[in-house]
Write a structure and sequence with these properties.
This protein is α+β, with helices and mostly antiparallel strands. Helix content is 58%, strand content 8%. It is built from 9 helices and 6 strands. A hairpin with a 2-residue loop joins strand 3 (308-314) and strand 4. The protein is elongated, with a radius of gyration of 38 Å. The termini are far apart. The relative contact order is 0.11.
Length: 344
């Protein structure tokens, strides 16, 4: 016999819960559908961020150049000291051999006192301070022992100096690696941003930079080089000869440059040695605080920490190595924060 029992109806509470859940699901779906997609940065925004990263990379590059310069200097100094120590040790050995020869001769003639053997030890200076033994030595032996004592002091000082410089070199190498990693990180971040641009945006950005460089070149008064001193004019001419060379951090020519690498290389071609880093170059000559007083070939220092430098090109322009991704080119001084010029 079939059952005529009515199906069980859902409770009022259960209906309420289901209705509320369904409404929430619909609301969330609507929000998701209407939510604005994450906006891709524009070409100009990417350029601004990349330029900022390039500037930070250049700051680190100048510190890197300074650490590299210090490392090279320390290595030369340590090499010189080690050579001096080696020669000094040879001289000390000869002095000891000479004293030993005198002692042997005295021994064979029966005229040597046993205490002379003490002076042939590694530290005869201790015994020179004892007047009682001095009476038992000849004037020639006293002179030889005095020389040995002086040479031992000299070698001890040089070895201590070498040890100190080796520690400094180790710290400098650590700093060098840190700065290299910092530069690489900034450049990688910049490249990552550039990779977000489409091919068309990249082409447009490259065209804008090329047009800016072209406009700067057209405004440069290339005939004004006569107002520069002979060496400054020669340095500027050298820099002009490498226009178009790529910026490479840590490079100082002849085919690639960073900012201070270009200026130091250019002056070297004119027979003038200037420091390697922009910060040091800021103190390499007479400072010129008015742009109107600048002459072609003067160094131009930018930013409060002096992390960028170029060569004055006349007519408010500078010839410089700007940053990674760019080449040696002319640019308006007004595009950067001018601090002062330096006349070498």
């Amino acid at each position: 016999m079939a059952s005529h029992r009515r199906p069980k109806q859902p409770s009022r509470a259960r209906v309420t819960v289901l209705t509320t859940a369904a409404a929430a699901a619909v609301a969330l779906s609507a929000q998701a559908a209407n939510a604005a997609p994450s906006e891709k940065p524009s070409k100009d925004e990417v350029k601004a961020k990349v330029d900022a990263l390039y500037e930070q990379a250049e700051q680190a590059t100048e510190k890197l150049d300074g650490a590299q310069e210090k490392q090279d200097k320390l290595q030369k100094e340590i090499s010189t000291i080690q050579d001096n120590v080696a020669r000094g040790q040879e001289d000390l050995n000869k002095l000891r051999d000479g004293l030993g020869t005198m002692a042997s001769a005295q021994y064979r003639t029966g005229g040597i006192d046993p205490s002379i053997q003490l002076f042939l030890s590694s530290n005869p200076g201790d015994f020179l301070d004892k007047a009682s033994t001095m009476d038992q030595l000849s004037a020639q032996q006293v002179e030889a022992l005095t020389k040995i004592q002086g040479k031992q002091r000299e070698l001890a000082q040089e070895r201590a100096e070498a040890s100190t410089k080796l520690k400094d070199l180790s710290a400098t190498r650590t700093e060098l690696k840190k700065k290299k990693d910092e530069v690489k990180a900034k450049l990688a971040a910049a490249q990552k941003l550039l990779n977000t641009l489409t091919a068309a945006e990249k082409a447009a950005l490259d065209q804008e930079q090329a047009q800016a460089a072209s406009r700067s070149t057209s405004r440069v008064d290339l005939g004004s080089t006569g107002s520069a001193s002979g060496r400054a004019a020669s340095a500027f001419a050298a820099a002009q000869s490498v226009i178009g060379s790529p910026y490479v951090y840590g490079a100082s020519g002849p085919s690639s440059f960073d900012c201070s690498g270009l200026t130091s290389w250019a002056y070297a071609q004119a027979g003038v040695s200037i420091p390697r880093t922009s910060e040091a170059q800021a103190n390499a000559g007479t400072r010129i605080y008015s742009q109107s007083d600048l002459k072609v070939g003067d160094l131009v220092i930018f930013y409060g920490d002096y992390h960028h430098v170029g060569l004055y090109a006349g007519n408010g322009q500078v010839l410089h190595a700007p940053h990674t991704g760019a080449v040696v080119r002319y640019e308006s001084i007004g595009n950067m924060t001018f601090e002062f010029g330096v006349r070498i």
